[in-house]
Design a protein that fits this description.
Layout: E1 2-5, E2 12-17, E3 20-24, H1 32-38, E4 44-46, H2 52-55, H3 58-65, E5 68-71, H4 76-79, H5 89-101, E6 110-111, E7 118-121, E8 130-134, E9 137-141, E10 144-148, E11 156-160, H6 169-180, E12 186-189, E13 195-196, H7 199-210
Parallel strand pairs: 3-4, 4-5, 5-6, 9-12
Antiparallel strand pairs: 1-2, 2-3, 7-8, 8-9, 10-11, 12-13
Helix pairs in contact: 6-7
Length: 211
C-alpha cells in the first residue's frame, strides 16, 4: 500500500509491505511536526536520492521514531558530507544558496538493498538514485516529474529531470531505458501528481534526450 503525505519540499510517501512501514523521502528540513501529525510509527526511512529537498528532515524524523535511514550505497558519500552534488545553471546556483541558509544535517545511512523490497538502482539524477516497485506501481524519486502542459492549467504531462540537476546525463538516459522495460503501470514521482504511465511517451522522452 502506498499513501502520499503532506510534507514540504517534495512528495513523501508511506509504504507498507509485509507488515512493515517505511517513510520514503522526508522533504526539506523542518518537516518533523508534519511527520508527527501524519505518522504514528515507522520501521525505517528510505531516501530515493540525497538531494536537499528529499532528505533534509531525515535525521530529525529518524531520531523521533528511533528508526534507521536507508539509501543506496552509492549515495552514502553525499549523505555523509564526504562529497557534494554539482548543479548547473541559475536555478542550480539558487538551490545551493538555499541549502547554505538552512543546511541539511549529514548522517550515516544503511544499505537500502538489505531491505526485503523491490529496489531498482536508477543512477543518473544522482549516483545512488533508486526506484521502489510495489506491485505494478513505482515510487520513482526524480527519475520523472509530472507537471502541467501550461503554467496555470492544461493536461498533465510526464517530464524528464532537468539536465542542470542530473549528475550524469548518459547514466540518466540509461536508467530511463531500464525503467521503460519494467512492468510498471503507475508512477509516484517526487514532484507532481501520481499518474498512469504511457510507455510510448517514455520512449519519446528518451529519443528526444538522445538527439
Amino acid at each position: 500500500m502506498i499513501s502520499r503525505l503532506s510534507f514540504r519540499g517534495c512528495n513523501c510517501y508511506l509504504i507498507e509491505s509485509e507488515g512493515r512501514r517505511y517513510l520514503v523521502d522526508t522533504g526539506t528540513p523542518g518537516n518533523l511536526k508534519r511527520a508527527r501529525e501524519q505518522i504514528d510509527s515507522i520501521d525505517g526511512i528510505i531516501i530515493t536520492h540525497g538531494h536537499y529537498d528529499h532528505c533534509g528532515s531525515a535525521v530529525e524524523i529518524a531520531d523521533h521514531f528511533s528508526c534507521k535511514i536507508y539509501a543506496h550505497r552509492d549515495e552514502h558519500p553525499y549523505l555523509e558530507g564526504k562529497a557534494d552534488f554539482k548543479f548547473e545553471g541559475f536555478v542550480g546556483n539558487f538551490i545551493k544558496r538555499l541549502e547554505r541558509l538552512r543546511p541539511m544535517e549529514h548522517f550515516r545511512a544503511h544499505d537500502v538493498e538489505s531491505l526485503n523490497l523491490n529496489i531498482v538502482h536508477l543512477p543518473g539524477h544522482t549516483p545512488g538514485s533508486i526506484g521502489i516497485v510495489v506491485g505494478k506501481e513505482m515510487l520513482c524519486g526524480d527519475l520523472l516529474r509530472v507537471g502541467r502542459k501550461y503554467i496555470m492549467a492544461g493536461e498533465t504531462v510526464v517530464k524528464p529531470s532537468s539536465r542542470n540537476f542530473n549528475w550524469n546525463q548518459e547514466k540518466y538516459i540509461e536508467s530511463l531505458k531500464r525503467f521503460a522495460q519494467l512492468d510498471v503501470e503507475v508512477i509516484h514521482p517526487g514532484h507532481g501528481e501520481s499518474v498512469r504511465i504511457d510507455r510510448s511517451l517514455i520512449n519519446e522522452i528518451i529519443k528526444r534526450l538522445e538527439r
